[in-house]
Amino acid sequence: MLYCRPELEEERQTLIVASAHNKRQLKEIEDKILYTLSASEGNILENETAIQILDSSKILSDEIAKKQKAFDYIILRLILL
Questions:
Q1: SS (H, E, C) 4-51
Q2: pLDDT number for residue 3
Q3: For residues 63 and 71, is the Cβ–Cβ distance under 8 A?
Q4: Of 81, 63, 69, the residue nearest 15 (C-alpha)
């Protein structure tokens, strides 16, 4: 979609690239969680490393979700301009 103002198109493209990066990061987090769960032996609640990985993954995925929500809002505003 082309906009009348080139700077808006440039901003939209930047947001699309950032959004793709966020999706890639979420996929990496998902893979890390799945690996951690599959590699864990015994009670996962007793595996300190697994708990740390799951905690950090949750924090990072929440941050990415917030960024993505903001990106979606900005892109919508650009479309409506």
A1: CCHHHHHHHHHHHHHHHHHHHHHHHHHHHHHHHHHHCCCCHHHCHHHH
A2: 52
A3: no
A4: 69
Q: Are 22 and 68 in contact (CB under 8 A)?
A: yes
Domain ranges, ordered by start, for the chain: 26-80
Question: What sign for the dihedral angle of Cα 51, 55, 61, 64?
Answer: negative
Question: pLDDT digits over 22-78, tens only?
Answer: 999 999 999 999 999 898 888 888 889 899 999 999 999 999 999 989 888 887 887
**Residue in the block written with tokens 């949750």:** 58
Side chain identity, residue 43 = N
Closest CA to 47 of 55, 30, 57: 55
* Tokens, residue 20: 């793709």
The model's pTM: 0.74
